[in-house]
């Protein structure tokens, strides 16, 4: 069964910056989509910030197995209701792949519970990504390392939670390192952060980057949504699995009324 | 040097429910504080929801090494600005211990990036907490397991991220299990979630619970705040550690203007 | 492409104990294999302790994608050379699923670097396995919990390393809990420990257990062996990726001669 | 109470190689000890491979809270009985800090359950260690990064298990990266691996390296030994915490006789 994949592009610098427009004449989202389509099992759509509800309507997300997110200049233009909706779909099992400057998106910071800060430099320097976890599905088919001759530098400390696993670590020409490929799960949803992707450089024309993205979509996909994870239900005493007697004092119904569990 | 500890109590059911008031005539926060004061190295203050800024002013937090948080009925009464302030202090290094129904507090859900749901039953049943990580500092001095004869049940799945380490797992009389002691780090701040503590039962009069809380404060304390973690600074090319030449295209200053990095 | 799966059975108590023989007239390994064969994509073979090299010849392992290991009474009868061979295949990418009393096998203890102790009781008591990680591939298609009416109890602390992820936690009738489904990676090889499976009870006739095992084989499979992970090669200065000059003092060739790196 | 710290040095190249002898006229172990003694709370002893039982007698280890291990040329000269003894003390709570080429020691490989391979180059190149986990106790008091002008290169993949936490990541002049500071727990014992320390360079004269080692000893220390973790005891049915009736078939005493649980 095909994996329904949605690429979300901010699509701002493509419209304003000549170099970015030349790199990605159809927009970054469409170039990312073309990398993904090299895997015949991925059914790939794209959408952008400029669409109604940024293209992330309830219906669109309900029909998405894995969402990719690239944003940079307009994080604060993303509506909070859409951010909440994306997070809720992740918690129920939608996969999410966050790209490059998406580390500062509301969606990623919200799911990490962290500021996701770092230090950075835009100088077209060489980045070399080392596979530190060669058995991980996201590293499948890659060489021991690969290089991006022109990239923006991101330096540690990257203030994100300790990941489930670290897949890539980057070396930068100017002397920094960065944990470039990190996996997480939030609720039932798999999340992968992948560092490269500065818009003024041709990163999404790189074959190894394409391989990583295809691997990541396959890894992140995990099947049906689990809506029950969004609830905190009461289990009545009479339905306890092992028979128990109710004992001790209870909160009154009125006291429970103030609680947020539902 | 003493560890400056602040106990935050919601202080709602103590004022409305006769049983809770009898259990905790001085409020739950003060009883928790009295458990902590058995460690002479802890300098313990308390505050409540009802105080201005819920007692979590910038000054109060700046003078806190470890914050304990108990809330249940009034999570949505906690001001978002205070929630943000608490999270920012955690990211910079303040320790945080979240108790029982605090799993649904805005602070905890925000730091976990997860709904932190579970299922529950208020029947005064027996809970038995097993130490699954006997080398962890939070388990120090505890027996192999300890029991709370009357507790609310919380059942899995608990939708929180995989922890750094699982310290306790609970057995419940009615047939459920729960990961009852979980550690996390967010930014530079240590976080410990500890499950027991339903307000209609005498949990905070239990000696083992006191031992866990004192251990947890000592574990969570990590020294000074690291304000630099709140920033994502640019490193100018001229200041690169290893000498590099600027290459390739750059975003214009105008393009950078829209970014949130600061 | 089918997943080449090998079930290793100790096959001792089936030959000596009437109840075990009645439970598993073809041996436990063959019953486990029949559960796996319900997944048409698994190509399943079996072997036992009694075969030459315990059926784990270099050729047999080289043709195995995922190995399942059930042992109990005869851990010390397993030849150290075979143990080493199995571990080396795991490090290069063979998946491994360790069942029940296999926690004390040389293979598992060797891969964990831990004694893998626990406490236990053989009383035919009820075990209830809760899914604590509902988004994990190994939990796919399972209910919120499932029960085994007759099982041996294993109690915490289970002295194994903190896992990558905890998938199941068990409740026992006699009052204990146990982390029953744990994932690890060693080198490029995925490892899953699954607790149930005492030989005097009909555990491997249970449908949910079958589902877990099939899920686990699919999860553990990761493709080709990575032989290069068994080496620690020197990278000559002249072949450094970034041009460097050799500086400082070096060990002589004679000094290097004593090292084990190769 | 002082932390009883034992520095184990292989003490081979100091005796054979002129440069090493000049770097460390009293042996590497004594120079490491002198760094540790800058913390008045550490009570530091040293021993070497050449001592009876390599200085790791039962009595010596029983009186050690944290052991540091530096070896390189003579890993295979370390007696297997001593290796087993060290591992058993770690499992019961002794802290262990493994230095540089100790990655290939029997003790470390045994505790990791992994080959702990890497690739390497001895060219006196620059290493820069970045703190990626600024809230970790082992990073306390360190700058954002520190440099060692002359070091041996170790490159990824480092075939060790995913750590509890990654504290340092190294940048190398020749283009490689390495996860240089990794934490683990095995049984009740804390383990820290720290990469730098090649014997032909003056690494153990560096102030930041000294700070890391002192921090690591303080972090790894966790108090008393837990001998019970070395056993897998039977819990008789009559002593079950919750009253249960024995049911179903059991293994005979004779069948149990073959098991290794004790």
TrEMBL record, chains A, B, C, D:
It comes from the Bacteria. Coiled coil: none annotated. Residues 6-220 form the ThuA-like domain. Pfam families: ThuA. InterPro entries: Class_I_gatase-like, ThuA-like, Trehalose_catabolism_ThuA_prok. Gene3D superfamilies: 3.40.50.880. This is Trehalose utilization protein. It comes from Devosia subaequoris.
């Amino acid at each position: 069964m095909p994996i329904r994949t949605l690429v979300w592009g901010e699509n701002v610098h493509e419209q304003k910056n000549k170099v970015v427009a030349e790199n990605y004449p159809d927009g970054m989202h469409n170039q990312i989509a073309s990398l993904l389509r090299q895997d015949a099992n991925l059914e790939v759509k794209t959408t952008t910030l400029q669409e109604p509800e940024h293209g992330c309507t309830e219906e669109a997300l309900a029909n998405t197995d894995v969402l990719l997110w690239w944003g940079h200049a307009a994080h604060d233009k993303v509506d909070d209701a859409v951010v909440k909706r994306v997070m809720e779909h992740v918690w129920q099992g939608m996969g999410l792949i966050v790209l490059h400057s998406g580390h500062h998106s509301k969606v990623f910071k919200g799911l990490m519970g962290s500021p996701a800060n770092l230090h950075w430099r835009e100088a077209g320097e060489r980045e070399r990504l080392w596979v530190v976890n060669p058995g991980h599905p996201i590293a499948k088919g890659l060489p021991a390392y690969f290089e991006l001759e022109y990239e923006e530098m991101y330096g540690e400390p990257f203030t994100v939670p300790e990941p489930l696993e670290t897949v890539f670590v980057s070396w930068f020409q100017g002397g920094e390192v960065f944990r470039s490929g990190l996996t997480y799960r939030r609720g039932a949803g798999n999340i992968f952060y992948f560092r490269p992707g500065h818009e003024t450089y041709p990163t999404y024309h790189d074959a190894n980057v394409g391989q990583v993205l295809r691997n990541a979509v396959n890894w992140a996909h995990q099947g049906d949504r689990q809506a029950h994870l969004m609830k905190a239900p009461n289990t009545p005493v009479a339905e306890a699995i092992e028979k128990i007697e109710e004992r001790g004092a209870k909160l009154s119904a009125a006291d429970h009324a103030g609680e947020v569990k539902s």
